[in-house]
Amino acid sequence: MDRLLQVDNLAVRFGPMQAVKWVSFTLHRGETLGIVGESGSGKSTLIWALTRLLPETAAINSGEVWFEGADLLRLPPDRLRALRGTRISYISQDPMTSLAPGLTIGQQMMDVLHREPWSAREKRARVIDALDWVSLPEPERRTEMYPHELSGGQRQRVSIAMALMLGPDILLADEPTTALDATLEVEVLDLLRRLQRETGCAVIFVSHHLGTVATLCDRVMVMKDGEVREDGPVARVFAAPQDDYTRRLLLCDPAHILTPTRRQPTMADAGTPGAGPAPDPAGRVKTEEAPALSVNGLSVTYTRRGVLPVALGGSVDRVHAVRQVGFEIRKGETLALIGESGSGKSTVARAILGLVRTDGGTILLGTDNLTAADRAGWQAARAEVAMMFQDPAGSLSPRRTLGEQVVEPLVVHGRRGEATRGKAVELLTLAGLDGGFADRYPHELSGGQARRAGVARALALSPRLIVADEPTAGLDVSVQGEVINLLNGLQERLGLSILLITHNMAVVRHAADRVAVMLKGQIVETGPTARIFAAPEHDYTARLIAAAHHDLPTHESA
Amino acid sequence: MFGYILRRIALGCAVLLLAISTLYVIVQAAPGDPASAMLGPKATPAIKAAFAEKLGLDQPMPVQIARYVGSVLSGDLGTDLRSRRPVTEVLAAHAPYTVELILAALVIAAGLGIPLGCAAAVRRNSFFDRAIGLLSVSLISVPPVIIAIYGMLLFSAALGWLPAIGAGEGLAERLHHLILPAVAVGIGWVGYIARLVRASMIEVLSANYIRNARAFGLAEGRIVYRYALRTAVAPTVTVLGVGVGYMLGSAVFAEIVFARPGIGKLMYDAVILRNYPVTLGAVLAATTLLVAATTLADILNALIDPRFKESRE
């Protein structure tokens, strides 16, 4: 194989922080190189540095990036610009922010072709071809649409089409599937694999997810704190990791642990996988008592009004977000509600918290009927049900300390007297953060710590039920296990019931007692976790599980 | 999009109706009555009462409001108590001067403010950026009246380049007369808009899609104007829409100082004379301008950034 890109001693710093530490590697023509690492390991910084697309706050200290006999780091700006998009292309992480909001898909894609000598008509035809190529339905109509009118998966397809439209030699993909849910991730990975086969371009695929890299790449590079810890063929690295960090990372990924266990190994104690009991619900789940939560025939409809009032013949669009959903959660039990984005699982959570109006059905919290509750009833109910928000850093106020925020639910519920610093420290300790965190601000926290702060706040009112919305979304695999352990541990100590909303099947396997699968607003299957994984009844469930397995390529050898 | 525009316009009309009713009440509640003002101190109570009856001022307030709203909707704003001409006619004669003044002020504010803010954001923390910052704060700090008076002293009295008073006849003359008052009303906004555009540009320039546009080799100018400014200008459009209200306030001063026969001057004279129909009409015209400006700003924003209309629905 001939060398396409040669990186020598590349180092990048952000102020005093050395983000990439003298990294060298080679990319061959047609090769797929995976770069794996936790957030902050410098993997994204590394690939954006290759064509000098870092923010102004970053500085490249040293290094050379050789591409076709030229050092990209020293190329004059206009010559470098001529390579961007044509020879070297990027796909960035978040499809929600990677396209300009004020221009149509067509306008943005035509802009990518700005250097080509084609007529506007021909450019348009090529844009439509490119969209068709990435299997976007109705490509012609899509060109007239704005990014916000497309779903996340569709936008990522558009980004891929844009990146590959001019047939680049190198595609740099920065976590292109991280923001997508499992089934979409599989689709996008399949698409990337197909396109790579068709174009033969070399790919550098950055991800924090080992499994994803393993399925897609020939070679993998493991990064930690700006250094390359391991570089080798995928099969070898996964089967026989030579670096201790890689080894621990592989052991700690909940997706790699196929035997259900309520105690995940963590980076700190890696080497003792599967420590702790299997999720045997006997004794913990109070089957003989009345359920903590029971939902029957729940329906939620969103309406969208047309131009004219209904009385004047205006139209009303009704979207049945949730239709006739029923399930119950016993005391001390974890029920996982799974399904892809848009399946209605978050709407169910919002209904339980009284954040949307229900159109039918009942929600019984213990013996209280929430659907018939008045303001005071809801106020009381909200002390019993706590929400763990999906984006913990975003759901904390940046201007107040954790100590103030974790006891805020007490203040809201008129128990200001109990909202003491002592209580805050107690809650933080319960969530596994030491008392010193009470004086810290959210921006000082890592993803895992923010998640723990969210748990501490959820526990403030000693709730009976916790609704955990995607508790591991956006977390490094090395921390996912810790969050699972935390939820499981709290459940055992406090007898909590947990409604776990997620599309991460690994979390479901290790934390849930039972699973309810949602599809298009309805529950299509419910059952004990082990049975669902072993013998899914519904096609859709099987697909979800298969999508998760997709991430586990070499597990039998690992 | 069409539905959104219709809804914005309908909402604007509703706001106007409410404003008309409120205005009527406020003007009636002000001290002094038109009968005394018009008929002079020697008028007997009987004559005053007859006058009030003629104007319908003896009716209960809700009736007066309903009658007023009704007549406004039918295009009848009453009769100027001085000149005996219909108020609509008086307004029609004065309104263009104010509209052109506000438009010119907007052109100055946006035409200078947006490029300055843009340039400052692109060359962030440079000497240039700091100079624009200093200039902006200075412009914001000086009241329009001061600019009007010193502008007049310098450019009209001392240098004789620009006319000091009046509005001029014919296009060239009118534009010539417009310069000083428009600068007085608009220049303070240049600084404000520059700061605003700079802040939102800096935010937008760090967005993911800007980096992506660079990654596709787009030229920097194209990225700044087509990709970044488009998103960054939205708050400015909103602020300018509301700003028309403040500019109308400054226009009153500017029109008095420069003796321009606009709505502001008309309003001022009518208030002094307790010329109720004209006062009401002038305020109504100003309100209409403001509501039209904010509605237009919303519609413009929806055209610039299609996400905007969803956030407002």
From TrEMBL, chain A:
Protein name, entry field: ABC transporter ATP-binding protein
Ranges where the ABC transporter domain occurs: 5-250, 295-545
Gene3D superfamilies listed in its UniProt record: P-loop containing nucleotide triphosphate hydrolases (3.40.50.300)
Broad class of where this protein is predominantly found: membrane
A GO term, aspect molecular function: ATP binding
Family: Belongs to the ABC transporter superfamily.
Mode of membrane association: Peripheral membrane protein
Disordered: annotated segments: 263-285
From TrEMBL, chain B:
Matching Pfam families: BPD_transp_1, BPD_transp_1_N
Main location: membrane
Presence of the UniProt keyword Cell division in the record: no
PROSITE patterns tied to this protein: ABC_TM1 (PS50928)
Membrane topology note: Multi-pass membrane protein
InterPro entries: BPD_transp_1_N, MetI-like, MetI-like_sf
Cell location: Cell membrane
Keywords: Cell membrane, Membrane, Transmembrane, Transmembrane helix, Transport
TM stretches of this protein: 101-122, 134-158, 178-197, 232-258, 278-304
ABC transmembrane type-1 domain mapped to chain residues: 95-301
Coiled-coil residues: none
Keyword NADP: no
Family note: Belongs to the binding-protein-dependent transport system permease family.
Protein name per UniProt: ABC transporter permease
Record organism: Albidovulum litorale
Lineage: Bacteria, Pseudomonadati, Pseudomonadota, Alphaproteobacteria, Rhodobacterales
